[in-house]
Each structure stands twice: as C-alpha cells, then as structure tokens.
Amino acid sequence: MASPAKFHKYTEGALSSHDQVARALGGEIIAGVYPPGSKIPGESEILSRFGISRTVLREVLKTLTAKGLIVSKTRVGTTVLDSSHWNFFDADVLSWKVARGFDADFRRDLTEVRLALEPAAAAVAAERRSAEDIAELHRCVEAMRLATGSAREFAEADLDFHRAVGRASGNVLMRSMSAVVETALVASFTLSSPVREESEHEVSVRGHKRIADAIEAGDGATAAEAMRAMINHGVERIARTESGARK
Q: For the chain, what is the mean pLDDT?
C-alpha cells in the first residue's frame, strides 16, 4: 500500500537554506520582479539579504540555471531568461508559480496538458496494468470515498490515484507527468474541493471508480473517456465556484 501523497512543494515546511533562497529568487523571477533581460541582484546583495554563504549561493544559481530561469556570463553577470526557456515541467518551477497565485491562463494551460496526456495514460494502463496496479487504484478510490470531512485527505487520495494511473501505463514519460497533475489538483482544490458538497463528492468518487473499473477490464477507450470526463468535471466545478463568487 502506498503512503498518502503529500503536497510538500506547496506547503510551508523545514526548507534548507538552498531551497529557501532558490524558492524566493525563483518566485520573484516568475512573478516579474526581475523581468526577462534584467540582472538579478549582485552577490553581495543576495548574501546580505539571506545571510547565506557563497557556497550556498553558487548552488542556488546552478539550480536556477538548470531550470532555465537565468544564465550567467563572464563580464555580463546573471541575466533573467525569457519565460520560453523556463522548465514548467519541473516540480519546483511549478510550485513557485503556484505560490504566486493561479490565473485563468495558467489553469487553462494545465488543463490542456492533462487532457492531452492523462486520457492516453489511462488507455495504455488498461493494456499494461498489473494486479498490484488495480489494487492500488481501488485503494485510492476507497480513500477518496472515506474522505468526507477533509479536503486535504481527499486531494491526497486523488493525487495518489492519478500517480497510480501513470505507473500502470508503464510509460516513464507519462509517469513523470505527476508534477503537472499535482499542480493542477492544488489549483483545483484551492478554489473548490468536492468534499465541500456531498453531491460533488459522490460524482468525483464515481468518476474515479469508472476509470479504475475500465482499466481493470482492459477497456482503454472507456478509461480514456472517463479520465477526460473527470478532468473536465474539475474545470466545470471551478468555473461554477468563480461564477458564484462574482455574483
């Protein structure tokens, strides 16, 4: 049995000095505090601001460079790159984006990526699933059914389910989609959790069970359609929540 998934990237916890500084600077770059083409603060300013060593700073800059946010050149300095270079499939970059808030365009982008890949993963999982995969999918559905009083517990079971589908697909690239799925679920449950409405909770549990049953039956077409329906249902739930908030 898998342990409950934790949305650790999106919650405050004990972060190392490196992670704290990378998150702060990375988040500021993503938020536009340092626009593309501009320079980030110099070494002395960063060292003074965060109280870190030069060794930690060098590692932070390596991290931000690897994620496509900055580039360092001799006699030029460290420059912020255009967002077209940013690796939005990186779990840290996604979490930094989330920390700055969700906008409609970003949620749309997440949904489009999920609709392109997750139904395909469900269809492939129906062909390649093992007995262990099926047991895990049904465990997740049952955990979602029992999570009637905690949005967090429901969200963790939901994330476990989608990760299990990725694993069952046997495709390492589809499995690596978990960072995008996690971000999308954080966006969804931040705005509207099915646990808050009994009818919505039932619809979500039934929808995920339909996916699990189709994968177990080896019915790839139904598994893909059911996955697509659940993603769209989440989008519609958020739209209703936002519409109600505007009234």
A: 88
DSSP designation for 77:
E
Amino acid of residue 59: E
- State CA 219 to chain mean position distance: 27
- Which secondary-structure segment (H or E) carries 23? helix 17-31
179-204 burial code (b ≥16 CB/10 A, e <16)? bbbbbbbbbbbebbbbbeeeebbebb
Query: Backbone phi, then psi, for 80, in 5-degree steps?
Result: -75, 130
Measured in degrees and rounded to the nearest 5, phi and psi for residue 101 equal 105, 155
How far, in Å, CA of 209 to CA of 246, rounded?
A: 33
Low-confidence residues of the chain, pLDDT below 70?
A: 1-14, 187-193, 195-196, 242-247
pTM of the full predicted structure?
A: 0.82
Distance CA 122, CA 44 (A): 51
